[in-house]
């Protein structure tokens, strides 16, 4: 399977993660500090990093800052007791790929790992046609179909959907989407984003009031699901 680097100082949590990951055939490498974690990123070349934020020698975000220049595509899932929206936004804006608040279940963790590994397998590749759930996005033709039916999107709506579809399953923060769709000067204009997301949902969701695919992560951003939600 894959090599998973666990950077976590809590022994009970490490035992839990070791049991869950080993049960799926993953190779586990462990570190308990920022410094050791950075060393293991370089040595073990992991496929996925599970990262606690509250480490004895500093904030876990320092690991992301250190590893991203050399390992831009290794996915990082933050596992933290910090459940505030602001903490999630900071971690995601700092380069984390996903964020799980403790406590969490084994099934949810494994699903998040599978999702980031799928995205990692196609990192750097932007096909002309993107298929996600019921959506087919043809970038060359600037066309979008929903369940095979053509829908008309404005240029902004199209760019917004493309950005989300390029990384299905991943939460993109308000700041990330604003920067990617509108440019760096729009990073504090969240109302633009809300308006266009609402308009986009009216065109691509069966029930825009209860979206199944383009979902809100409250206070953080938006996610385009990469698999059908469980009923």
Give an overview of the whole structure.
- 39% of the residues lie in helices and 23% in strands.
- With 231 residues, it is an alpha/beta fold.
- The protein has a five-stranded parallel sheet, sandwiched between helices. Strands 8-9-10-11 form a four-stranded antiparallel sheet, covered by helices on one side. Strands 12-14-13 form a three-stranded antiparallel sheet.
- Strand 4 and strand 5 form a beta hairpin.
- The longest helix has 16 residues.
- The protein is globular.
Helix count? 8
What is the number of strand segments? Answer: 14
Largest sheet: 5 strands, parallel
Question: Could you say which structural class the secondary elements and strand pairing correspond to?
Answer: alpha/beta
For the termini, the CA-CA separation is: 30 Å
Low-confidence runs of at least 5 consecutive residues: none
Strand order of the largest sheet: 2-1-3-6-7
Principal-axis shape: globular
Kindly state the mean pLDDT as a whole number?
89
Gyration radius (Cα, Å) is 18 Å
Strand content: 15-25%
Specify the helix fraction band.
25-40%
N to C succession of SSEs: EHEHEEEHEHEHEEEEHEHHEE
